[in-house]
């Protein structure tokens, strides 16, 4: 364990566990906070599985990074982030929840701690307004699966300081990742429009989901089609993100398709449930 102060992660879901894995594999001490009953146990399971899968995909030796699991501490108490130098919030994409978390982080964290969000849609200014440190707030939009993606979209707000951006880029470099700095989310707006329009195409019976994705892969050269991408992200997360984008942009193109909403209502959330736009074999 190095002498750096710990990094906090809010949320033990797929993204939170993935970000914690990135930090632990780089030798950083991590504190993961999630108040939801059972979330910490499932988060630890996700971390173990993530370490196993990345070793296979990267063709790493069978021995895991030294003490990777031991570097991660799991807790339900946000107050334990008082010593953290940097916090990455990975909670669900819901405005009221993120407002609450950032207000609490502002109270419990050191004045010099950077408060980052893994949000893909919520404006940094909205998050910063819940704090007394708007210069130390920004978004670090990790892509899923976080351990396998080399780049992170870093979104700075109107009041985010250069020092905060520099500290964030330095942390990402330590994780072996490249930070790409933007003023507003680029990836989300483009990808979610494609996902939503693809869902509308299926809904209109223009083509089935496999054919829609095949067009993107075979005709356009994409590694993965938009509907398979949505299944990987999680259709509940896609739906929440579209709702937030529609609210902030007032753009009717972000109104979620009925098919997407129906799948989420039925509990078909993509890979994590075994069924979304596509069906996946059980593990």
From TrEMBL:
<protein>
    <submittedName>
        <fullName>3-hydroxybutyryl-CoA dehydrogenase</fullName>
    </submittedName>
</protein>
<comment type="pathway">
    <text>Lipid metabolism; butanoate metabolism.</text>
</comment>
<feature type="binding site">
    <location>
        <position position="120"/>
    </location>
    <ligand>
        <name>NAD(+)</name>
    </ligand>
</feature>
<feature type="binding site">
    <location>
        <position position="144"/>
    </location>
    <ligand>
        <name>NAD(+)</name>
    </ligand>
</feature>
<feature type="domain" description="3-hydroxyacyl-CoA dehydrogenase NAD binding">
    <location>
        <begin position="7"/>
        <end position="184"/>
    </location>
</feature>
<feature type="domain" description="3-hydroxyacyl-CoA dehydrogenase C-terminal">
    <location>
        <begin position="185"/>
        <end position="280"/>
    </location>
</feature>
<dbReference type="GO" id="GO:0006635">
    <property type="term" value="P:fatty acid beta-oxidation"/>
</dbReference>
<feature type="binding site">
    <location>
        <position position="93"/>
    </location>
    <ligand>
        <name>NAD(+)</name>
    </ligand>
</feature>
<dbReference type="GO" id="GO:0070403">
    <property type="term" value="F:NAD+ binding"/>
</dbReference>
<dbReference type="GO" id="GO:0008691">
    <property type="term" value="F:3-hydroxybutyryl-CoA dehydrogenase activity"/>
</dbReference>
<keyword id="KW-0520">NAD</keyword>
<dbReference type="Pfam" id="PF00725">
    <property type="entry name" value="3HCDH"/>
</dbReference>
<dbReference type="Pfam" id="PF02737">
    <property type="entry name" value="3HCDH_N"/>
</dbReference>
<dbReference type="InterPro" id="IPR036291">
    <property type="entry name" value="NAD(P)-bd_dom_sf"/>
</dbReference>
<comment type="similarity">
    <text>Belongs to the 3-hydroxyacyl-CoA dehydrogenase family.</text>
</comment>
<dbReference type="InterPro" id="IPR006176">
    <property type="entry name" value="3-OHacyl-CoA_DH_NAD-bd"/>
</dbReference>
<feature type="binding site">
    <location>
        <position position="272"/>
    </location>
    <ligand>
        <name>NAD(+)</name>
    </ligand>
</feature>
<dbReference type="InterPro" id="IPR013328">
    <property type="entry name" value="6PGD_dom2"/>
</dbReference>
<feature type="site" description="Important for catalytic activity">
    <location>
        <position position="141"/>
    </location>
</feature>
<feature type="binding site">
    <location>
        <position position="98"/>
    </location>
    <ligand>
        <name>NAD(+)</name>
    </ligand>
</feature>
<dbReference type="InterPro" id="IPR022694">
    <property type="entry name" value="3-OHacyl-CoA_DH"/>
</dbReference>
<keyword id="KW-0560">Oxidoreductase</keyword>
<feature type="binding site">
    <location>
        <position position="34"/>
    </location>
    <ligand>
        <name>NAD(+)</name>
    </ligand>
</feature>
<feature type="binding site">
    <location>
        <begin position="11"/>
        <end position="16"/>
    </location>
    <ligand>
        <name>NAD(+)</name>
    </ligand>
</feature>
<dbReference type="InterPro" id="IPR006108">
    <property type="entry name" value="3HC_DH_C"/>
</dbReference>
<dbReference type="InterPro" id="IPR008927">
    <property type="entry name" value="6-PGluconate_DH-like_C_sf"/>
</dbReference>
């Amino acid at each position: 364990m190095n002498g750096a102060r710990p990094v906090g992660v809010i949320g033990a879901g797929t993204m939170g566990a993935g970000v914690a894995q990135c930090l632990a594999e780089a030798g950083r001490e991590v504190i993961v906070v999630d108040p939801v009953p059972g979330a910490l146990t499932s988060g630890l399971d996700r971390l173990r599985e993530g370490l196993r899968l990345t070793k296979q995909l990267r063709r790493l030796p069978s021995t895991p990074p030294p003490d990777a699991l031991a570097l991660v501490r799991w807790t339900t108490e946000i107050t334990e982030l008082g010593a953290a130098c940097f916090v990455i919030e990975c909670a669900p994409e819901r405005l009221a929840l993120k407002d609450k978390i950032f207000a609490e982080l502002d109270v419990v964290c050191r004045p010099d701690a950077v408060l980052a969000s893994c949000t893909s849609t919520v404006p940094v200014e909205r998050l910063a307004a819940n704090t007394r440190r708007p210069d130390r707030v920004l978004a670090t939009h990790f892509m899923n699966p976080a351990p396998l993606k080399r780049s992170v979209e870093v979104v700075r707000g109107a009041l985010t300081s250069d020092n905060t951006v520099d500290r964030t880029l330095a942390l990402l470099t330590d994780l072996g990742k490249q930070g790409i700095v933007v003023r507003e989310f680029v990836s989300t707006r483009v990808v979610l429009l494609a996902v939503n329009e693809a869902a509308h195409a299926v809904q209109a019976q223009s083509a089935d989901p496999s054919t829609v994705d095949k067009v993107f892969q075979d005709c356009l050269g994409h590694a993965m089609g938009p509907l398979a991408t949505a299944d990987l992200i999680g259709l509940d997360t896609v739906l929440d993100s579209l709702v937030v984008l529609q609210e902030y942009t007032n753009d009717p193109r972000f109104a979620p398709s009925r098919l997407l909403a129906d799948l989420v209502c039925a509990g078909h959330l993509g890979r994590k449930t075994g069924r979304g736009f596509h069906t996946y074999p059980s593990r």
